[in-house]
Specification:
Blueprint (H helix, E strand, L loop, with lengths): L68 E2 L2 E2 L26 E5 L6 H10 L5 E5 H5 L15 H23 L3 E6 L10 H8 L4 E5 L3 H9 L9 H11 L9 E2 L6 H17 L5
Helix pairs in contact: 1-7, 3-4, 5-6
Length: about 280
């Protein structure tokens, strides 16, 4: 309701209630009266420190408790801080549960493929077996068979297969899958052989040499068929070149008297030592 020539009426005051929302009384009080609630002190002038705060109020009769702090760092609740425990010696590495990249080296007939497959089958983590011979045989038309003589075409296909195996190994490792590769790497060709695998897979590759006696290699090679079976003279020549791995610093397993499961168990022991102290190659 509004009067003809004046301001709006003030809302009625109800007992027990303050002023209505959005409405403030027109009366102006310039300051507090004597004996009313204390007015906070004005802020200090620029350049002067603020006065120290007054004592904290505590209930009557309550004992005085010093602040439970040391400097600006609050102490933890409860008893004193425990003494840090001495760290224990690290456990021996477990190659069966570790993601690895292994290169199994050996001559034809050493049992590389059989041992690699068995080792990969019996690990607790996903593991892939990558065989260089299998990848080389992807080439169907124009396959350069080394049995007909080692030439530029067979060398080029070998290098291509090695790079392909290296790419596959890196992809498996990037997805948390271990891999074991097998190849007849010669010690007298470090740049092409071991150096090439290191470039394609990475410096974390763990090489292990599988080198049984010549009579065992000849016996196993005789059981092969197709282009993987070599003549005895070639097998003996390759085995003689592989003997150059002795004294190289790489771990060597003589599996002449070992079956496939026993050789795989020895391979695990060798890899555990290689993880703890990687060979320099």
């Amino acid at each position: 309701m509004q009067h003809a020539g004046g301001s709006p009426l003030q809302p009625p005051h109800r007992p027990g209630h303050g002023p209505a929302d959005g409405w403030s009384p027109p009366a102006h009080h310039p300051g507090p009266r004597q004996g009313s609630v204390p007015v906070p002190a004005p802020p200090p002038a620029p350049g002067y420190p603020a006065p120290p705060p007054g004592p904290t109020q505590r209930p009557a009769g309550a004992p005085h408790q010093p602040p439970d702090t040391t400097g600006h760092v609050p102490l933890p609740p409860g008893g004193p801080v425990a003494i840090p425990s001495v760290p224990q010696a690290p456990a021996a590495p477990d190659p069966a549960g570790t993601t690895l990249a292994v290169l199994l080296i050996g001559p034809a007939g050493a049992g590389k493929t059989s041992v690699a497959k068995y080792w990969a089958d019996h690990r607790r983590v996903p593991t892939a077996h990558i065989s260089l011979d299998d990848v080389r045989e992807w080439v169907r038309s124009g396959f350069a068979d080394p049995q007909t003589g080692w030439n530029d075409h067979s060398e080029a296909q070998y290098r291509l297969a090695r790079r392909t195996c290296g790419f596959a190994a890196r992809n498996f490792l990037a997805n948390g899958i271990s891999c074991i590769l097998d190849d007849a790497v010669f010690p007298d060709r470090p740049v092409v052989g071991l150096g090439g695998w290191k470039r394609h897979v990475g410096p974390g590759l763990l090489p292990v040499v599988l080198l049984p006696g010549l009579d065992i290699v000849l016996e196993r090679n005789a059981e092969r068929s197709g282009n993987r079976r070599l003549d005895d003279e070639e097998v003996a020549r390759i085995h003689g070149r592989m003997a150059g791995w002795y004294g190289s610093g790489l771990p060597i397993i003589d599996n002449s008297q070992l079956g496939i499961p026993e050789t795989a168990a020895v391979l695990d022991d060798v890899l555990a030592r290689s993880i703890a102290s990687p060979p320099s190659w």
